[in-house]
Amino acid sequence: MDLTFDYDLNQTSFPLTSFQTISFNSPNVLISMFNVNYAWTSSSSYRITIESISYIYLYNVTITVMTMAQPTPDFTSKYGVNFKSTVFNQSIS
Q1: What average pLDDT does range 19-30 have in this prediction?
Q2: Which pLDDT does position 22 carry in this prediction?
Q3: Exposed / middle / buried, residue 46 (Cβ in 10 Å: 0-12, 13-18, 19+)
Q4: Comparing C-alpha atoms, which of 48, 53, 43 is closest to residue 14?
Q5: Cis status, amide bond into 73, omega within 30 of 0
Q6: 5: closest CA among 91, 89, 86, 72?
Q7: Which of 88, 91, 89, 87 is nearest to 7 (CA)?
Q8: Contact (CB, 8 A) for 68 and 19
Q9: How many domains does the chain have?
Q10: Please, which pLDDT band fits residue 33 given cuts at 50, 70 and 90?
């Protein structure tokens, strides 16, 4: 999954690994069963890759990624522009 923002992010202070949570709709599938990798793809986007640690048979399982609640103070881009409130508490499955 790629997350892309309108402005460049401050790659030293942006909470890359905690900006979003990853969950599954099955109690039998746990995040600990996967390696989760984060990689910057540009100055304003990054990619999350989820790979199983061993063989996993996924049948009818939904993976959901949800961004964090809006913090106080708000995050700013590399150039001091505040994040839009619409990037927080958003999910995709």
Answers
A1: 93
A2: 94
A3: buried
A4: 43
A5: yes
A6: 86
A7: 87
A8: yes
A9: 1
A10: very high
**Over residues 16-38, mean pLDDT:** 94
* Torsion angle in degrees (nearest 10) through CA of 27, 32, 35, 36: 70
Whether the per-residue pLDDT at 27 is higher than 80: the answer is yes
List CB contacts of 28: < 8 A, sequence separation 6 or more.
none
Please, which residues have CB within 8 angstroms of residue 84's CB and are 6 or more apart in sequence? 6
Structural contact between residues 52 and 12, judged by C-beta atoms closer than 8 angstroms: no
pLDDT tens digits along 71-85: 877 778 888 888 878
Q: Which domain, by its residues, includes 69? A: 2-92
Q: Which residue has the tokens 């001091």?
A: 80
